[in-house]
Design a protein that fits this description.
By secondary structure, the chain is of the alpha/beta class. The chain is built from 22 helices and 16 strands. The strands form 4 sheets. It has an 8-stranded mixed sheet. It is an enzyme of class 4 (lyase).
C-alpha cells in the first residue's frame, strides 16, 4: 500500500525541518561507534574496577563478548515497576545463555503520578523525566557496554529513558516491559464512585474500597493513560519486541519475552553482523509511526509534550502542527478507558497492537520501511508471541477484531479522526483531546472563572458557585511557574457539573492526565502565564470561545490585547517536598510546545 499523502507530507516536513540537527546527531553517534567496544580502550585498572564483582569477569577482560548494561527504574512503590525487582537475575542468565554478560549500570527514579496527584510532589513529576535522562547518562558513562536494556513503563519514565537511549544512540536499546495488572474493578465503576464522592453521595470508605479494588496487584494500571500509551509507542516505534506490551507480569510468557529481549540485545551490537543502534531506529519515520499510534488509539495527551523532547534527543524536531495534521488523517480505531469501557487487557485480547499495526499498514498510514530491534520492517509487529513446546515463537496476529466494541478496522473506525486537535487564537496555542468528549461539547462559548490553582476550583465547587455554563481557567500551571503538574484531580469535579446539565470546559497552561476523559480541556496553553502569555490577561467574566472543530481558542473581550498580564506571586511553588531542588529546572524549562525540556 502506498503511503498516505498526509503521512508522507508530514514526514517530509519533519525531515526538512530537522535536517541540520539530525545530520549533526548522526555524525556524533557515528563517531561514538567508530572505535568498537568502548571498554577495549579502558586501562587495565579501569576495567578491573568495572568487573571486580562479576563472577564471569574473564569473559569481559579477555574476550569480545557483548556486555549489556541494565538501566532500571525498579522500585516497589509503583505497582508497574515492582516486577522489575527480579529482572536483573533473569537478564544475567539470559545474557550468559546468549554468550554475553550483563550488569546493572544504574538505577533511575520513578515516581507515581497516581500517588502525587493533587499534591506538592506532583510539581516534580514532569521534571523527573529530565532527571531520569540525566541519571541514565551517568549509568552509561562508564563506557563499558555494547548495548543497553531499559526497564521502565510509567508516565515520565519511558520518555526519560528514550531521551537517554537516543543520547547514547550508538548503542542498541531494547526496552523490556513489565505488563499490566489483571483486570480489577471496571474503570467506569471506579470513575462513578469518584464522581459520587465529589458530589457528596458516598463517603471516603466507599471511595477507598473502589480504589483498592481497581489498583490491586503488581503491574501497570489497566486504564489507557500515559503508562500504557508509552508501551504502545515502544512497539509502534520498534524499541520493544512485537506483542510484548500487554502481557501480564509474573507469567511464563512474560519471562520468555524478557529473555528474548536480552537475546536480541546481545545479537544487535556492533560486535555482530546485525548492528542496530538506537539512533538508527529512532528516525523521523519511527516518530511519525508513534504519532499515528497515538491518534489511532486515543492515547495520552502527555505524549504531546514527551514526543517532541524524545525526538529532539535524536536530532528530530516535532511541532504541534504535526500532531494535528496526523490526527486529521488517522481514524480512531480503539475504545479503551477513558475513551471507552474496556481496559488494556480487553484491548490486548481483542487483537491489540498487532491488529492495529496491520490495519494501519494496509491503509498506508504507517511507514513499513523502518528499522526495529526485531529486524527490518514494521510488518513484524503484526505478529503475536506464543509459548510452544519448543519455546517462544511468533505467529500471525489476528486480521479481524475479536471485539468490535473495543477495536475496529481502519475502514470502519469509531471516528474518522484521532480526536487530538490543535487550538490557536489570541490565547495562544493549546491541544484538546475530544475522543471521549460528546460532540455537543466540542464548541463552548461562556464566561470564565479564573483560578491560580486546582484547590481553589474545588473550593468554589464545594461552595456551590458554579451555577451556569462556565469555562474554568487554571493558570500559572506551566513548567516555568510550578513544574506543570497534572490537574487530573479536577476531572471528577468538572464531570459532576457536566452531569448537572451545565456546559463546562477547562483552559489551562498546565497538564491533564493521560486518564482525562469527557471534560473538554484546552491544555498545554503556550506561551504560559508565568512568561506573560495571554492567559495571564484573562479576567473573571470574560467570554471565551473554545471551538474544537474550527481549532480556535479566543477571548472575545474587546480590550483583551491591550491589557497588561497579571504577574503572579510564585514563591510558594519553590518550597517543600523537594521543590527547592528544582529551581533551576523551573527557571530554564523550554516552552511546552517544544517539550518543556531541560536537557534537550
Amino acid at each position: 500500500m502506498a503511503i498516505h499523502p498526509v503521512i508522507e507530507r508530514v514526514t517530509d516536513r519533519i525531515r526538512a525541518r530537522s535536517h541540520a540537527r539530525r545530520s549533526a546527531y548522526l555524525a556524533r553517534i557515528a563517531r561514538a561507534a567508530e572505535d568498537g567496544p568502548r571498554r577495549a580502550h579502558l586501562s587495565c585498572g579501569n576495567q578491573a574496577h568495572a568487573y571486580a564483582a562479576m563472577p564471569d569477569k574473564a569473559d569481559l577482560a579477555l574476550t569480545a563478548h557483548p556486555n549489556i548494561g541494565i538501566v532500571t527504574a525498579y522500585n516497589d512503590m509503583l505497582s508497574a515497576h515492582q516486577p522489575y525487582e527480579r529482572y536483573p537475575d533473569v537478564i544475567r542468565r539470559a545474557a550468559q545463555a546468549a554468550g554475553a554478560t550483563a550488569q546493572v549500570a544504574g538505577g533511575v527514579p520513578a515516581m507515581c503520578d497516581g500517588v502525587t496527584q493533587g499534591r506538592a510532589g506532583m510539581e516534580l513529576s514532569l521534571f523527573s523525566r529530565d532527571v531520569i535522562a540525566l541519571a541514565s547518562g551517568v549509568a552509561l558513562s562508564h563506557d563499558t557496554f555494547d548495548a543497553a536494556v531499559w526497564l521502565g513503563i510509567c508516565d515520565k519514565i519511558v520518555p526519560g529513558l528514550v531521551i537517554a537511549a537516543a543520547s547514547f544512540g550508538h548503542l542498541p536499546a531494547v526496552f523490556l516491559p513489565g505488563g499490566p495488572m489483571p483486570s480489577g474493578l471496571p474503570n467506569d465503576e471506579k470513575a462513578r464512585v469518584r464522581q459520587d464522592f465529589a458530589a457528596g453521595k458516598v463517603g471516603r470508605e466507599a471511595l477507598m474500597a473502589a480504589e483498592m479494588a481497581s489498583y490491586h496487584s503488581p503491574g501497570t494500571c489497566t486504564f489507557y493513560g500515559t503508562a500504557n500509551t508509552n508501551q504502545m509507542l515502544m512497539e509502534f516505534m520498534g524499541l520493544q519486541l512485537p506483542g510484548s506490551s500487554f502481557v501480564n507480569p509474573d507469567t511464563p510468557l512474560r519471562e520468555a519475552l524478557t529473555v528474548a529481549g536480552v537475546t536480541r540485545a546481545a545479537a544487535i551490537t556492533r560486535l555482530g553482523n546485525d548492528y542496530t543502534p538506537a539512533g538508527a531506529v529512532l528516525d523521523e519515520r519511527a516518530f511519525v509511526n508513534g504519532l499515528v499510534g497515538l491518534m489511532a488509539t486515543g492515547g495520552s495527551t502527555n505524549l504531546v509534550i514527551h514526543l517532541p523532547a524524545m525526538a529532539r534527543a535524536a536530532g528530530i524536531e516535532l511541532d504541534i502542527q504535526d500532531f494535528h495534521d496526523i490526527s486529521q488523517a488517522v481514524p480512531l480505531m480503539a475504545r479503551v478507558y477513558p475513551n471507552g469501557l474496556a481496559d488494556v487487557n480487553h484491548f490486548h485480547a481483542a487483537g491489540g497492537i498487532g491488529f492495529l499495526i496491520g490495519q494501519l499498514l494496509d491503509a498506508g498510514l504507517l511507514h513499513e520501511d523502518v528499522r526495529t530491534i526485531a529486524g527490518p520492517g514494521l510488518g513484524r509487529y503484526t505478529a503475536e508471541p506464543r509459548l510452544a513446546e519448543d519455546g517462544l515463537t511468533w505467529v500471525p496476529g489476528t486480521s479481524v477484531s475479536l471485539n468490535d466494541r473495543i477495536l475496529r478496522p481502519a475502514a470502519d473506525p469509531f471516528a474518522a479522526t484521532g480526536g487530538l486537535n490543535m487550538l490557536s487564537g489570541n490565547l495562544g496555542r493549546a491541544v484538546i483531546k475530544i475522543s471521549a468528549v460528546k460532540p455537543e461539547l466540542h464548541r463552548i462559548e461562556a464566561p470564565v472563572r479564573v483560578f491560580a490553582n486546582q484547590s481553589a476550583v474545588k473550593a468554589a465547587f464545594q461552595a456551590g458557585e458554579f451555577t451556569q455554563d462556565t469555562i474554568v481557567v487554571v493558570r500559572f500551571q506551566g513548567p516555568r511557574a510550578n513544574g506543570m503538574p497534572e490537574l487530573h484531580s479536577l476531572t471528577p469535579t468538572l464531570s459532576v457539573l457536566l452531569d448537572r446539565g451545565l456546559k463546562v470546559a477547562l483552559v489551562t497552561d498546565g497538564r491533564m492526565s493521560g486518564a482525562s476523559g469527557k471534560v473538554p480541556a484546552a491544555i498545554h496553553l503556550s506561551p504560559e502565564g508565568a512568561t506573560g502569555g495571554p492567559i495571564a490577561r484573562l479576567r473573571d467574566g470574560d467570554i471565551v470561545r473554545l471551538d474544537a472543530a474550527a481549532g480556535t481558542l479566543d477571548c472575545l473581550a474587546p480590550d483583551f490585547a491591550a491589557r497588561e498580564p497579571v504577574i503572579a506571586d510564585l514563591t510558594a511553588n519553590g518550597e517543600g517536598m523537594g521543590r527547592e531542588l528544582f529551581a533551576a529546572f523551573r527557571a530554564h524549562a523550554a516552552p511546552v510546545d517544544q517539550g518543556a525540556g531541560i536537557v534537550v
